[in-house]
Amino acid sequence: MTAPVRLDAVRKTYGSGAAAVTALAGVSVVFPAGRVTAVMGPSGSGKSTLLHCAAGLDLPTAGTVTLVGREIGGLNETQLTELRRDHVSFVFQSYNLMPALTVWDNTVLPSLLAGREPDRAWATEVLRRVGLGDKAGRRPAELSGGQQQRVAIARALASRSVVTFADEPTGALDSQTALDVLALLREVAAAGQTVIMVTHDPVAASYADTVLFIVDGQLAGRMDAPDADAVAARLAHLGARARQAVS
Ligand SMILES: Nc1ncnc2c1ncn2[C@@H]1O[C@H](COP(=O)(O)OP(=O)(O)OP(=O)(O)O)[C@@H](O)[C@H]1O
User: Listed GO molecular functions (predicted)?
Assistant: First the structure.
């Protein structure tokens, strides 16, 4: 089976001339179906850029991204929008909830936009699992930051998209809620979805099947079946290496 997300020699440069910043310096990686992959690395190492390029939200300067079997460089804007709408979900750092809609309507919106009948039983279950079972009628402004983050997670998972991209999905959550969310991410992956998340938290990363480490826009290693202590140790080592390189 082809992997739902694949990057080949992806480079991303912002700006040009003397001001150019190389955020990704030739990344090749395959994200297999049914797995949670965590992307970790020092601040500014290119994690969010990797996520945005892999998700087709940003186009690479060079190299190719294949998303759900389509090479995105060959798609026009409408095709790319449809590909994302039908197969991809996102949890961003800014939660991008629709302020006028209730928690429930936000949660089922991606399915409606994709022209699918929402799976109401699953949406109800997801909201319950993220601890918002009693908040379905609220609007985002009536929720705390962590609750809004959980709506964004419920919205991403309710549509059972092929791939879910998440940027710090547990950043605003208390540790118990974070663990509940991570367990849910594992569960949807076990059911066949692909989850790719950026995190700074070794405990969150330990819930992934694989951790990819990125330094200076390049892959700097991977760890399968990670445990939190080993991830923290590897990160400390990579951070020290990155600091040495700039001093
Ligand atoms: N739109 C942009 N214009 C110019 N430079 C950018 C832009 N976005 C990112 N960069 C630069 O690209 C590099 C990688 O940024 P990116 O946000 O991908 O890193 P990150 O690993 O996600 O960082 P953090 O952990 O701090 O969120 C950084 O040097 C950043 O300053």
Answer: ATP binding; ATP hydrolysis activity; transmembrane transporter activity
Q: Which of 13, 40, 45 to mutate to test the pocket of ligand 1 (most atoms within 8 A of CB)?
A: 45
Nearest CA, atom 4, ligand 1 = 14
**239 CA → ligand 1 middle, Å:** 16
**CA distance linking residue 108 with residue 228, whole number of Å:** 34
- Whether ligand 1 lies within 6 angstroms of the CB of 239 is answered as no
Mean pLDDT of the region 3-32: 94
Give every CB contact of residue 8 below 8 A, 6+ residues apart in sequence: 28, 63, 64, 65, 66
| Per-residue pLDDT reduced to its tens digit, 88-147 | 999 987 778 999 999 999 999 999 998 999 999 999 999 999 999 999 999 999 999 999
Which tens digits make up the pLDDT trace of 180-239?
Answer: 999 999 999 999 999 999 999 999 999 999 999 999 999 999 999 999 999 999 999 887
| C-alpha–C-alpha distance, residues 81 and 245, integer Å | 39
Q: Which protein residue's CA is at the shortest distance from atom 24 of ligand 1?
A: 43
Domain 5-95+163-246, architecture per CATH: 3-Layer(aba) Sandwich (3.40)
Those residues with Cβ within 8 angstroms of residue 165's Cβ, 6 or more apart along the chain or in another chain = 51, 54, 55, 88, 89, 90, 91, 196, 197
* Ligand 1 centroid distance, CA of 48 (Å): 7
- Would you kindly state where each structural domain of the chain is located, as residue ranges? 5-95+163-246
- Single pTM value for the model: 0.93
Q: Does 194 contact ligand 1 (Cβ within 6 A)? A: no
CB of 42 shorter than 6 A to ligand 1: no
Q: How confident is the model at residue 242 (pLDDT cuts 50, 70, 90)?
A: low
